[in-house]
From TrEMBL:
Gene3D superfamilies: 3.30.300.20. This is Ribosome-binding factor A. The lineage of its organism: Bacteria, Pseudomonadati, Pseudomonadota, Alphaproteobacteria, Hyphomicrobiales. HAMAP family: RbfA. It comes from Pleomorphomonas carboxyditropha. Residues 1-71, 181-200 are annotated as: Disordered. The keyword Cytoplasm applies. Its main location: cytoplasm. One of its GO terms (biological process) is maturation of SSU-rRNA. PANTHER family: RIBOSOME-BINDING FACTOR A, CHLOROPLASTIC-RELATED (PTHR33515). Pfam families: RBFA. It is found in: Cytoplasm. Monomer. Binds 30S ribosomal subunits, but not 50S ribosomal subunits or 70S ribosomes.
Length: 200
């Protein structure tokens, strides 16, 4: 009497891969699929293939790589700059030293968590910028309170004041470009008969 194999108990509906015991009593498959699976497990998850070579993939930013400010940071920085410029222009800060130096605020940079703001200042009178930094730092707490009243933020950021030296760099470059030596180099080599053309 012939019986259907599928009707017998314990018969597998599909063929199972043969396995051999490994160290630690962990079986492994003897099929190409099993070998490919082991190769995938051997490859680190945090790596990528480039030109046939495995290149480690580093998460986050590398050391020294500056992260560009977000739109929210830029917007909050501009609001703080506008508020401080308005306070200084109207003379609301009762500090004779600040009034005498005529301090301007070219830029404000805000930290990603919006808790700290670096305020770059420039005294129009020129000279040593240290007194301007000290004068503004002396009034930082009062200025922080005024900024909190003018802009809608959950937390008013701590203000740190630094001298903006970009104007000095620009003036230095402009002076170099207008110097006689650089102007002569930009005009090209001296022509015969020019005063600077000397016979060897």
């Amino acid at each position: 009497m012939r019986h259907e194999l599928r009707g017998l108990p314990g018969y597998a509906g599909r063929r199972r891969h043969r396995v051999l015991p490994r160290r630690g009593n962990r079986p492994h498959a003897l099929t190409p699929a099993g070998q490919a699976s082991r190769k995938r497990r051997a490859t680190p998850a945090a790596s990528r293939i480039s030109g046939g070579n495995i290149v480690p993939h580093h998460h986050g930013h590398s050391q020294g790589e500056a992260r560009a400010p977000s739109q929210r940071q830029l917007r909050v920085g501009e609001l703080i700059r506008h508020a401080l410029a308005e306070i200084l222009a109207r003379g609301e800060l009762m500090d004779d030293e600040v009034t005498r130096m005529m301090i301007t605020v070219p830029e404000v940079r805000v930290s990603p968590d919006l808790r700290n703001a670096t305020v770059y200042i420039t005294p129009l009178g020129g000279g040593d910028p240290k007194p301007a930094e000290k004068a503004m730092a002396r009034n930082a707490r009062w200025l922080r309170g005024q900024v909190a009243h003018r802009i809608n933020l959950k937390f008013a950021p701590d203000l740190t004041f630094r001298y903006d030296d970009r104007f000095d760099e620009t003036a230095h470059i402009d002076a170099l470009l207008h110097s006689p030596d650089v102007a002569r180099d930009l005009d090209g080599p001296a022509k015969p008969g020019d005063p600077d053309d000397k016979d060897e």
